Amino acid sequence: MIDPKRARLPIIRQCTLLRLNRSGVSYRSVPQSEANLELMRLIDAQFQETPYMARGR
């Protein structure tokens, strides 16, 4: 619904009218590196094998 190219109505005003948080409109996700994805896979695999290890003392 937000049109960033609309010159007559700034994004901040469009967000205000639609009651949207401006940070949610301008956020751009950053892709994860392959190394980070591999680490997350390893952590997930370990958790699946030993879920009791995740509990705090």
Any key phrases for this structure?
single chain; 57 residues; mainly alpha
Q: Taking all residues together, what is the mean pLDDT? A: 84
Give unreliable regions as ranges: none
Q: Helical region count?
A: 3
Q: Write the H/E string, N to C.
A: HHH
Q: How many beta-strand elements?
A: 0
Distance between the termini: 48 Å
Tell me the helix content: 40-55%
User: What structural class is derived from the secondary structure elements?
Assistant: mainly alpha
* Quaternary structure of the protein: single chain
Number of domains: 1
Radius of gyration: 21 Å
The global form is elongated
The main β sheet shows up as: none
Proportion of strand residues: under 5%
Describe what is shown at a glance:
With 57 residues, the chain is mainly α. The protein has helices at 11-18, 22-26, 34-49.
Question: How would you summarize the topology of this molecule?
Answer:
Elements (H helix, E strand, L loop, with lengths): L10 H8 L3 H5 L7 H16 L8
Report on this structure.
Helix content is 51%, strand content 0%. With 57 residues, it is an all-alpha fold. It has one domain (11-54). The chain is elongated. The chain starts with 10 loop residues before the first helix and ends in an 8-residue tail after the last helix.
